[in-house]
Amino acid sequence: MLGCWLARTGVKTRIIDKRASKITRGHADGVQCRTIEIFQSFGIADGLRREGNELAEVVFYNPDKEGKLVLTSRIPDTDPHTSRFRHVVLTQGRIEDFLIACMDKEGLRVERSVVPISFEYEPDQPITVKLAHLPKTEEYIDPSSGLYRSNVVTTDSENLDIKDARIEEIKAKYVVGCDGAKSWTRQQLGFSLEGDSANIYWGVLDARPITDLPDIRVKVVLHSADAGSLLIVPRERNLVRFYIQMGTLQPGEKLDPRAQSSEKIIESARRILAPYTLECPEVEWWSVYEIGQRICRDVSFDNRVFLTGDAFHTHSPKAGQGMNISMADSYNLGWKLAAVSKGLASPSILDTYGQERIQVARELIEFDHKFSRLFSGKPAVTAESEGISIEEFQALWVKMGKWNSGTAVRYGPSLIVAEAGEAKTRMARNVVIGQHFESQVVVCYADAHAVQLADRLVSDGRWRLIVFAGNMTNPVQLARFTSLCDTLSSSPSSPIKKYTPAQADINSVFEVIALTSSPRLALPYTALPALVRPLVGKFGYPTYDQIYSDEKSVHDGGGEAYKWYGVDKEGEGCVVLVRPDQYVADVLAFEGCVEKLGMFFDRFMLPPS
Amino acid sequence: MLGCWLARTGVKTRIIDKRASKITRGHADGVQCRTIEIFQSFGIADGLRREGNELAEVVFYNPDKEGKLVLTSRIPDTDPHTSRFRHVVLTQGRIEDFLIACMDKEGLRVERSVVPISFEYEPDQPITVKLAHLPKTEEYIDPSSGLYRSNVVTTDSENLDIKDARIEEIKAKYVVGCDGAKSWTRQQLGFSLEGDSANIYWGVLDARPITDLPDIRVKVVLHSADAGSLLIVPRERNLVRFYIQMGTLQPGEKLDPRAQSSEKIIESARRILAPYTLECPEVEWWSVYEIGQRICRDVSFDNRVFLTGDAFHTHSPKAGQGMNISMADSYNLGWKLAAVSKGLASPSILDTYGQERIQVARELIEFDHKFSRLFSGKPAVTAESEGISIEEFQALWVKMGKWNSGTAVRYGPSLIVAEAGEAKTRMARNVVIGQHFESQVVVCYADAHAVQLADRLVSDGRWRLIVFAGNMTNPVQLARFTSLCDTLSSSPSSPIKKYTPAQADINSVFEVIALTSSPRLALPYTALPALVRPLVGKFGYPTYDQIYSDEKSVHDGGGEAYKWYGVDKEGEGCVVLVRPDQYVADVLAFEGCVEKLGMFFDRFMLPPS
């Protein structure tokens, strides 16, 4: 994910991986809505939808008073209005493939069998990292077992023999450890993960099951009376991911990896599922993990070294958050690192990485702590009996739906997120400063296409001004919008003027996207300001994708955007400032907009050299 | 297209192409709805939607009484309800890539620089074809000019020197000439194209234009007062395809290819478009063609040699029919040839290729004759003045929309299409025997997915029985459906019993898909007949994708299917028999269904050997 950003923004990057090959089976598989939105912004969401299995429903099974499993509730997996996308599941290996292909287009590849062996840091100097390029080995690792990467194996069990390795010294401006729970980078910084263990262990299994449980192609959350809990996640290629409660440990007790097997996991599943049957003639992958939550207090050092993902937070996998939040960490960091590396922004914006992502990680840990204990708890069969409340568990599940989808994240005020306020809320009631800009269907003036507005927020490093231009058949409003565009294009205090290189296209650093409340054919296309239909490129081709109308399309809906965003169709309009990662940085009135934008960007943008 | 069918059905096939490389620029670009449906059935429609430009609107410009160009009408390009897909445009080279990749998955490739040089036919013997494998040449052909393939060049201008070629003799059971208007295969059969020329020539140009015409990203149909007509088709990658009327020829006069150029075409376009301006700094491709319509009376010889596409019908390109109808020819032929080659069906079904496709080609020629003359005609400025009627032209355009989309094709009764009739129409009022089975959103019992029902009609050679099972909460109707399934699975007269090999999965020749009018949760999944949830494959995995409900899904519509197809939700249901190419072969009542199916298939199916 970080590589995608850096490759697309042209930052010289190397990615090293100590492993000889990428993941092909198992591991993470849930792709949350916000992650699909991010993939879409890189143009790589199609594969998720094509190959992944969309989860439509969640079904809860619980013991009745006699202890017999019964279906107690059935709900949609993704609540409508969560996102234009829905939760899908697909093996991590394919998800990595999409990211790898995305980087590869720009010429960036993962260098495998390369291990970092030393790290030297001096302020204001390049960071020196020594790398060992391991000789190619043909060592066989059973691809169906994920144990060697799980948290029940505390040391790296692989034989990373650097004796015959070629040693290389590299000088780096920045180092980012996306290197997992046992992060080498974290160790160099002397940071550590802090937290506790629940002393409970679960098995995980990818298989094609033969079962008489009718609900096997929807998500099933199942608490048995006495045999533990189980989560069923139907996957691509008729696979099913099972999470299966296995047992408890004494405080301090370590699980013996050699005693684990897929057969033992299937046996536990059968006990939990009884009287339903289960056969798994083909097991694609399995592993065992202990439940625990750990977090690192710091995620960056001197704004030169950063940690993302499991290197700074680990937890249990059942809510499908690990891969998603880890990718979101890197997505948050990527564009900032690119802007600073390329001299467009001051290093101070890198402070916001930790500010924004530690808060998310803390929420994750807190949620997972509660969630995993309820999941592993023995259900109370009646309100009076001991055990966890099924009602409480199901209520938590529903409540956490939006958070789990990744679309509820809200970043606090910072150098790159303005303070919210009453006046701003009045202009766009449902546009939340600090949250990502949500999508609505709008219609393109030039080609009459119905477009998801957020699809225009491509991850290319540009900031965007989404101008709710209002009713263009009102001459006063058209004049106000024209005047705003004129000032944005020509005022010396306009950030567009100040931070766009003189020879570059006017939309190359900031892109202005207009959304009118009036229909697209209400006035001639050329009556709209030149700023939103600029001439670009070597030949000066007109731009046709910056002007949209909030009208109903022939085929694909639309006409609800102003209402959805909470902007008055006949009002004075407003400007929504959107960061390169689609988060709303500010909402501004037309009047004073250019000066306020100027002040906002003057805090961290650097003029073109 | 033919290769896709043959590769996917496992027929040993060779594809030869005399050209050294595939098309990269220009040529056809319109992909009609029915073609996208076909691509979808091969699992390769995604690329069309991802890379192609969907056309949303058609705008008509015509001269007013003073001869000034004015916008006279604006209509949607694809009428709602035409298909679940919409008309897109994309360069032919990419469309070929998708087909090539689809074949390649099965190991079938196009052999290039291979020319057929002799053809020997004896009844009941293999056909002997000699091939010349040309040495690789580095001859430069200007990729931006398409003249050498156009109909203004009457002989093949390429230098196909077979002197140094390696000669190979192959023995073929079947030969299909998909070899264009100058078809070598057709010449071997002694067949010829018959028809006439309009003595009018047009230019065609792919360019990125700079113009002040505001409607350049929608389709524009433009008749000027005196300078001729023009068609604008906005394409992928900001390209625009222009068709530009150039001039007339004397009867018998031939155009001099050497006198043609992109500059001359752009000059003509400027005259037609005036007073709007046009600059084309980058021309990707151009060509010139004469308007004419020609058709071959026969398309097959002894059911051993066949002609498809331009080898049997040529016409003008502006309605975007050539590539689409040509692919539809091959799509019609492919599954039949596969079934006969594999010994599943008698060769008599091959007669239906000509029966079905000659009719379509005749309609095409007739339509194009009328359409191209109206397009090239000088518009009458008033009702009284001379010239073609703009109203007549626009009315024809709208009327032909459904036909152009490829979704209106209806095959007549034949060995593989039953006679229609009042009683059949009553059972499913909007299911037309001989037309392709249209799509509606239905909900899958097992996973709650909203599914386009036609997406289940994958091109894999299987026949399908779509059973409108009715209301499963009505015990009488459930019993009738169960009885139908029992008879289908076990009666000796059932074609499923007779024509499915004993060791094969029960859904491998005929797939039964049930659509209930009752909701999916109205009765337990396992209460439905085993025929629609069979155990398949080596391990006997349950099938979860053969039972659907006509209910509303949470996210994606649905609940309108019975109404759309015209089947009574509370009635006795019916069975729609669908061919491997999605065309409806018959509509049957439950009672007598198995016997009638038996008689239908006994006419041409062969029992497994």
UniProtKB/TrEMBL annotation, chains A, B:
Q: Please name the GO terms that the record assigns under molecular function.
A: FAD binding; oxidoreductase activity, acting on paired donors, with incorporation or reduction of molecular oxygen, NAD(P)H as one donor, and incorporation of one atom of oxygen
Any idea where the Phenol hydroxylase-like C-terminal dimerisation domain is? 409-608
One matching Pfam family is FAD_binding_3
SUPFAM superfamilies for this protein:
FAD-linked reductases, C-terminal domain, FAD/NAD(P)-binding domain, Thioredoxin-like
InterPro entries named among the record's database cross-references = FAD-bd, FAD/NAD-bd_sf, Phe_hydrox_C_dim_dom, PHOX_C_sf, RIFMO-like, Thioredoxin-like_sf
Keywords annotated in UniProt:
FAD, Flavoprotein, Oxidoreductase
Ranges for domain FAD-binding come to 1-120, 161-367
Please state which protein family the record places this protein in.
Belongs to the PheA/TfdB FAD monooxygenase family.
Its protein name is FAD binding domain-containing protein
Record organism? Roridomyces roridus
